[in-house]
Amino acid sequence: MTLQQIEYVLAVDRFRHFAKAAEHCRVTQPTLSAMIQKLEEELGTKIFDRGQQPVCPTPAGVLVISQARNVLFQAGRIRDIIEEEKHSMSGTFNLGVLPTIAPYLLPRFFPQLMKKYPQLDIRVVEMKTDVIKSALRTGEIDAGIVAGLSDMDEFDRVPLFYEPFHVYVSRESELFGREVIRTSDLSGEQLWLLDEGHCFRDQLVRFCQLKAAKASQMAYHLGSMETFMRMVEGGRGITFIPGLAVLQLSEAQKELVHAFAIPCPTRQLILLTHKDFVRQTLKETLVREIRRAVPSEMQELQSTQVLV
Asked: For 168, which DSSP code?
């Protein structure tokens, strides 16, 4: 039994597909399949039921996979301890990022970070908050960039920056001519909202007390904030966008951006890690590079803003 075999088993469990697992592990599918089969022969049991699609673990496989996660997590800590002793900026680092922040934050710091530390292999995955927390518990990722919420005491939290929300208003909306948007103005408007489970959506629904949110969710299951922005630009309804997204807009698009009335709803972005995360040098570098990449006014919560 080897750590490599355990890694392959966990990859198949994650992707429920041998080819995708092999691609993730950067080996050929025959190699991955052969290694797992060899482990099954050694254990005298099948870990996966290959007759099902997607591939599923057997009852015995569920137990093996649970223990395999613990083994790989502890083995990884040994490497991390040595890397931290050397203050190393190399190796693999898995980062989970919210889908509502990744397209706007990553281009601001990630390419520069790769150039500065070419030996560091950061693998980024877009995940919702609950998935990030679960992946941190299992060791699937090393850190997550999320919006600060009240139920995160089990993790170590480092503040990154504060990001205000804006209202994106179509030219055909009666709200387009208004200087600022009050929450009471949103009643009866066509809202383009993300599905439940996106903290970006949930925070704004609570802040704005949006009674129309449920109907909007039931009627529209479009995939992303970018899709909603295109709908607004096409002349229909309103949506909400984060502050960093505004910085990527053209001048014509910025005409659709409206501020909330004071106090402006704002989210705090934080870096989450397991409490026993070892590689503090890497973590401190990541935090520093992210903070440098955002506008100075986002470094602190402004008097005109309120956390949601």
From this structure: E
Residue 126's closest CA among 135, 117, 115?
Answer: 135
How far, CA to CA in Å, does 109 sit from each of 10, 113, 126?
30, 6, 16
**What would the two tokens of residue 47 be?**
């870990």
A 10 A CB-CB count for 39 gives: 20
Check residue 65 and give its pLDDT. 94
Residue range 184-201, pLDDT digits in tens: 888 767 788 776 556 776
Q: For residues 44 and 68, give the distance between their C-alpha atoms in angstroms, rounded to a whole number.
A: 16
Residue 67, judged by CB atoms within 10 A of its CB (0-12, 13-18, 19+), counts as exposed
Nearest to 300 by CA among 273, 266, 262: 266
| Sign of the CA dihedral running 181, 185, 187, 191 | negative
Residue type present at position 232:
V
CA 34 – CA 111 distance, rounded (Å): 37
Q: Rounded to 5 degrees, what are φ and ψ at 302?
A: -80, 160
State mean pLDDT over 276-288.
91
Reported in sequence order, the residue ranges of the chain that DSSP labels E, i.e. its strands, are: 48-49, 56-57, 91-97, 120-126, 143-147, 155-169, 180-181, 238-242, 257-260, 264-274, 305-307
**How far is residue 238's CA from residue 22's CA, in Å, rounded to a whole number?**
42
* Residue 163 CA to its chain's centroid (Å): 16
Distance of CA 112 to the CA centre of its chain: 20
193, 213 in Cβ contact below 8 A?
A: yes
